[in-house]
Structures are given as structure tokens and as C-alpha cells.
Amino acid sequence: MADTRKNASEAAKESADAGREAVDAAASAAQDATVVGLDGVRRVTEQVTQALGVAGQNNEAVHQASENLGALAETSTVLTRGIQDVSREWLRLSQHGLQKNIEGLTQLARCRSIPDLVAVQSDLLRNNWHYMIDVSRWAAQCSIEIMNEAAEKIGSETKQAADRTRRAA
């Protein structure tokens, strides 16, 4: 029984480590794609304004568009980092939950009577519900913090752009 629990625990840890590496790789790829995409949009904007001949007439508008794209890039970096952090934590919490379930199965296997089985099973059910509620609460709080940080980043960039526009006018 101890070997089975140890093997299951090791398998859960290996699975969580592999998942963590996959999340890191996906988040890094998403961040790189966002930066490349925004650079591409910035270049296209500059080329279109030059082709239409407005670059000399309205440099401020081109500069403003470029700064807005920069703000989007910074915000997407915040969101990507937040998603990566949340994914990492979900994996850790999943590993913890798996370990608790393995321990629960061990407790069930030790039961020698129906009343013991019912008591252990109801404790496991109650603990899993509490765990699920706690994890959901944590995920909601974390999501709110990430969105607030992203909104703050966009808000500060928008305020700076508005201030520059007022000074230029």
C-alpha cells in the first residue's frame, strides 16, 4: 500500500512538473506572439500613413497610434504573466488535490465497517467541497487582481496620451 501511494505521489509530481513546463512554454510563446504581432501592426500603421502622405501632416496622430500599440503590448504582457501565474497555481493546487485524494483512498481502504466507510467518505466529500470553494475563491481574487493591473496600465497610458495631446494643442 505504501509503495502504491508513493508511486502515485511521484506520478502526480511528475505530471505537475510537466504541466508547469508546458504552461511556461505556452505563456512565453503567447507573449512572444503578442510582441511580434504588435510590432507588425506598428509597422503597417507607419507604412499606411506614409503611403497616404499623412506622416508629415499629422505626425502626432501616428505617434499617438504608436503609443497606443505600446500600451496594448504592455497590457498583454501583464495579462500573459497573470495567466501564467494562475496556470502554475492551478497545477500546484491540482497536485495537492490529487495527493489528498490518494490519502483519502488509503483511509477508505482501512475501513473495517460500513459506519467507518460512511464517516470517512462524508469527511472526504466535505473536505473536497471546502477545497473546491477555496480554490474557486482564490482564482476569482487572482483574476480580479490581474484585470485591475491591466486596467491600471491602460488607464495610465491613456491619461499620459491625453496629457500629451492637451500640451500639443
Give the proportion of residues in helices.
over 70%
> SSE order, as H and E?
HHH
Describe the largest sheet: none
Global morphology = elongated
Low-confidence stretches: none
How much is the radius of gyration in Å?
26 Å
- The percent range for strand residues is under 5%
Q: How many DSSP-defined strands?
A: 0
Distance between the termini: 77 Å
Which class of secondary structure composition applies to the elements?
mainly alpha
- What integer is the average pLDDT? 76
Separate helix tally: 3
What does this entry look like structurally?
The protein has helices at 2-51, 59-110, 114-168. With 169 residues, the protein is mainly alpha-helical.
Topology:
Elements (H helix, E strand, L loop, with lengths): L1 H50 L7 H52 L3 H55 L1
Helix pairs in contact: 1-2, 2-3
Keywords:
169 residues, 3 helices, 93% helix, 0% strand
Please give a quick description of this structure.
The protein is mainly alpha-helical.
